[in-house]
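Lab notebook, bench 4. Still working through the backlog of constructs that have no structural model yet. Next entry is a single chain of 133 residues. Request: give me the structure tokens for it.
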Amino acid sequence: MLHGPKKTQDFARNLRRRMTLPEVLLWQALRTRPEGLRFRRRHPAGIYVLDFFCPASKLAVEVDGEAHARGDRAERDAIRDRWLCTQGVRVLRIPAQVILSDLEAAIRHIVVIACGDYPSTGFAGPPPPPGEE
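Model written out:
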């Protein structure tokens, strides 16, 4: 299981108290254990803190707000994602706007990725409704 040093654990604990609205909405949905999947919020992993982590499927779910498009953030995210990949963790990035506009689609997409054998990915949209695949 992934874990981090004490400093990262303390930072993760602090971040749990300061979640953004999209993160709060997603956590409210993920804590109901969709499809029996258990998620942790603000999980320490090495020097990083994952927004959400499903240990059973080794899936990190990252909520990407506007700040992820600024400055060197994209490069830092890529470095972080590569490190997580070396730890056997897949990363699913979902734009915060998607969570705010269609939370159910975001949850369905997370469940499909968590239950499947998919590589790390960005959010390409929700999976098609049953029968339209």
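Notes after review: Residues 102 and 126 are 9 Å apart (CA to CA). The longest strand covers residues 48-54. Flag for follow-up if needed.
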